């Protein structure tokens, strides 16, 4: 938003101060003409000359910020708008400054701050339709930004959940595989171990006693036969 200066024809004898003022007015008007022709660097030069001639000239300072803004040097433009704010005398002038500050912040993607500047402008000039439009645009951009952030956060959370589920599933499969492998190894160890000898059939005490008695009887019978054989041999020898 350029602050336009009305041109007046002065048919009076002018003092030195008046001549200086007329010179500043001429510089500002030339700058305005160049600005409207999109010759922003040339307009900047004339506005700077106006500031140099009179540091506290509001029109020169405000329009200088506007020309710098159009060249994309937003930090420099912001400084000039802040400087011009201290020189503004009317609510209209202050409203225009806050409007341009809002634009500068919006270009710098400082949405929350730009919204604050537009609201300040509307406090001073509630009927400014251009500021109302810019405010609604900034609010919409901020809402879109918040929605994008929410969507990104949701996607990030979903990816983290999926990764965690996959990790849990992989771990479960790994543990199951380890259990199966361990069970298989145990089976192989059992197959490789020698089987114990089967226990012999046990006999009862009565059977054992009968066997023992039978052995004794056999032994007694054998001894009897040996004695008889020995006795016969002795008798033969006596007959001779």
Short recap of the structure:
Helix content is 79%, strand content 0%.
Explain what this protein looks like in three dimensions.
The chain is mainly alpha-helical. Among the domains are: 19-87, Tetratricopeptide repeat domain (Serine Threonine Protein Phosphatase 5, Tetratricopeptide repeat, Alpha Horseshoe); 89-150, Tetratricopeptide repeat domain (Serine Threonine Protein Phosphatase 5, Tetratricopeptide repeat, Alpha Horseshoe), CATH 1.25.40. The protein has eight helices and no strands.
Helix share, percent: over 70%
Count of helical regions: 8
Q: How far apart are the termini?
A: 171 Å
Number of strands: 0
Unreliable stretches (pLDDT < 50, length at least 5) are 2-19, 235-240
Write down the CATH topology of the domain at 19-87: Serine Threonine Protein Phosphatase 5, Tetratricopeptide repeat
Radius of gyration, Cα only, in angstroms? 58 Å
Whole-number mean pLDDT: 80
β-strand percent reads: under 5%
Question: Topology, please?
Answer:
Blueprint: H1 16-36, H2 40-53, H3 58-70, H4 74-85, H5 91-107, H6 111-124, H7 129-192, H8 205-239
Helix pairs in contact: 1-2, 1-3, 2-3, 3-4, 4-5, 5-6, 5-7, 6-7
